Amino acid sequence: AKERGRNNLELFAPVMTRQVSDRLLLEGRLREALKRGEFELYYQPQYDFAHNRLTDCEALIRWNSPEGMVMPDTFIPLAEETGLIVPIGAWVLQEACRQGEAWNRVSVEPLSVAVNVSAVQFRPALVSEVQAALDETGFDACLLVLEVTESVLMSDIEGSVQLLQELRELGVRVALDDFGTGYASLAYLKRFVLDKLKIDRAFIMGIPDDKDDVAITSSIIDIARNLNIMTVAEGVETEAHCAFLRKAGCNLAQGYYFDKPLPAEEFMRRLQ
Ligand code: C2E
Ligand code: CA
Ligand code: CA
Ligand code: CA
């Protein structure tokens, strides 16, 4: 067979278009990356509208590969397919809790840290993984937020209700990520006991000109408020987004208008 050049463009192409041999190569590289400590968490601040304060953040994984930084959309899908997301996800939990504990030791106001949980991780063993991360780091459970998506919960509704309950018994909080993009019906907001709803960037983008996006976003905020669930707007990029969300009663904002995801050291400077 003709030898194909393996430049990193090819290796880091989307999972779907990649050759079988490239997928195997990438899988091996991901396994090595975990062993060698090439993953890093960036933290994106979330600002509280009521007090204009940085109160929360979301941990987002990056891969410092020898060829440069690789973004999660490039490797998380393959990590999920191969099951590598389980050890990677456990590392993310540990690292986010370790960092969160370190920050909370020096910060006057409590800071919550949110971690993304993949569908593959969302199974009964997640409870002991979360417990282990909390025990080993001493991080306060109520400051840890687990972000799950609608499709994760909807694939097994009874199982999800049970698992969410066990997780909340540990004292951690749960956020529904990318809200409005999946197929969860509003009725499930009652069955799944949730602490936060993250309004998907797709709706925020249309504010204030798109009447549908405006209507959907205000409705989500109203329903959440009535159910005692906090709202987080993602992808807040402009002053107009902010003005609208503040007026609509959204609780927290996350997006480039404030900050991009930041390396831990830079995030620390924002905290001070
Ligand atoms: P997500 O959970 O929806 O995370 C939000 C994504 O939007 C992040 O992309 C963030 O950098 C980006 N973002 C934030 N503010 C803005 C904005 O104002 N405008 C725009 N256009 N984008 C904004 P990122 O870091 O590339 O992560 C992509 C996805 O990868 C995440 O989407 C999440 O699904 C997944 N992911 C990231 N870290 C982890 C992880 O540790 N574990 C798992 N399982 N998935 C992760
Ligand atoms: Ca998220
Ligand atoms: Ca999201
Ligand atoms: Ca998203």
Automatic annotation (TrEMBL):
Compartments, record wording: Cell membrane
Name the domain of life this protein comes from.
Answer: Bacteria
The name this protein goes by in its record: Cache domain-containing protein
Domain EAL: start-end pairs: 23-272
Organism of this sequence? Marinobacterium weihaiense
Keyword Transferase present in the record's keywords: the answer is no
| UniProtKB keywords | Cell membrane, Coiled coil, Membrane, Transmembrane, Transmembrane helix
- Span within the full-length protein is 678 to 949 of 949
Record keyword Cell membrane present: yes
